[in-house]
Amino acid sequence: MTKSTIAAISGGEPYSALGLTRAAANGDPSARKALIDRLFDRVRKTASYLAGSGADAEDIAQMSLVRILKSAGGFKGESSLEHWADRVTVHTAAKEFEKRERRARLLDAQWILPPPTFGVDEDTETRRIREKLTIAFGKLPMQNREAMVLHYFHGYDISEVAEIMQVSVNTARGRLRYGRKQLKRIVIADPLLKKWVEEQSI
Amino acid sequence: MKDLDERLTRRVAAEISSGGTRAGLLGELDERSRQKAIDCIVDLASTRDSDVEETVQIRRTPGFSKTRAFTALAAAAAIAALIVVVVGRLGKVEPEQKSSVSSGHVLDILGTIERVGGSVTLANREVNESTPLVSGALIRTSGGAASALLDVGARILFQEESLAHVDKTVGGVRVVLDSGAVWLVVDPKKRGREISVRTKAGDVVVKGTVFRVFTEADRAAVYVLRGEVELIPHSGTTTRLQAGRTGSLGSEKSAEMTASQMREDRDLLASLSLILTSEIPLPEDSEPALPETARVEAPVRNSSKSPNISNGMPLGSLLAEIRNRRASRDWVKVSELYETVIREYRETEAATAALVSLGQVRLEKLNDPYTAVRRFDEYLATGSNALKPEALQGKADALHVLGDSCAERRVLVEYIAEFPSALFAKQARQRLDRLNQSDLGGKACPDSRAAGTYLLGTPKSSTGTE
Fold it and tell me: Could you report the predicted ipTM of this complex, rounded to two decimals?
């Protein structure tokens, strides 16, 4: 392994991400493994918010990680490695869901996120509310969901959301606005969630 | 209005993410599984696109026309890897497999074939015991069943006349069942979505359980013996199926197992040491259940692979051997030795104490809470008090793993009443509070008594162990 790779894997340096991706793109086995190791949890987390906790999320996570490795040479170091990985994951999920929604329309079937896997120690009421909220979130159109995952789950500001989704700032803002409205409508329509909202004093 | 939407959305996002792990809503992987998944992804990324396309062609059977690209990716590396072995060992390659020989990937072994009855082929080759189970290779059973032990902590029993393959996924493995039936016995401590069964009608996702999936045409029937599974149809909503229940995918009609099927399956699973014969309840019109004497725990692993335990060993030697085996973490052998102590030195204090030790080993080391509960109960039935706190604590833990909250609540109440100042008492009270706060609240328990109001010293028959 080269010195730059070792430095990259050890982290901490501003150029470490770029060094790591370059070494991975050049086929350095340790760097390839280190790159996936670094992004593994992040990508799975993003995929899970986009696709729930089911096998679909695992599929998207796996496809995204494979794509990250295959396109490691395309990382320019202009943003953080995690930011770049989020972009790859969002695009991978978008493509997959586009295919799936097209197919679902053909089959006239509604696709709904499977409920998440939470710990057995949690009380049932909390778990049920989380499951219902996750399912409600999964009912949002994919584009709105992507924008909301980036903004509300990962904390990107609107210009960053626009940059990752490769749309204008106004479009990103619009997707967030419509996403919020739709989410509220879905949540309020469920008696249990409506009660939960009232209890939250939002 | 905008502020309200904004606040609501932020609250929803916080609520959803607060229940997750560092992998979001997905189950967190242990370090070994995580490293294996990373290795798998690095391998997959090395797969040439042409290999993937060829594999998609191989996999695109009419029943699985919706197979995802991901499965094809996983299978690509695995089948390519398989060929390396097939060429090396047998010198002959099936035409459909030759396409990806050139990629030369590392062999992707998911486990081992344990037992074979009748004719069983893996990638069109006859298999025998200890043949590696390779990801993506088709398994066909005819004239008998076969069982496989997976590295992720599960056993699969492929029943007679079944066609399936096992794929590696990021989180674990997926059994793709084309036809026939499989039983899965999954480590109850393996949480998350590590193991699933895919049928033409939908997916069955494991929550730590023993269950059977049978598929024919475009429907599948699922019977859960222990734990819980999720049924995820290809179209429609996800449902959960708990122990003792039968569900179906791709059809409104629920496919109950017949008495003869249950009896056959029970005997088959027990003969393979996958369950106890008493675990599968037979319908009333079937043959009577096996007598009590038949309820002998089978060893967890294939005992033929282990060195013999010499019968008639002095007690001191047996206990010394247990200490040695404990030091070397050979828990299967430790379990067998405790069984020997209990069997050959019954009525002695050592045998009584061994019941608790055995229960703990079964629960904590061999992930077998069912046997653990039974052993703790046997100890409690002796009337000995020396290890009663440990036995009650172990029983509560085992019932917690099994998800039997009613029985767990009763044991915790008994523990707190008898040992209020013990170390575990504080933890027991917290667990009891959590159970009481759940919406179950004891109302769904068999005797309909409210949570926390159970009489102390509940009869053994109502402790959920039988």
Answer: 0.74
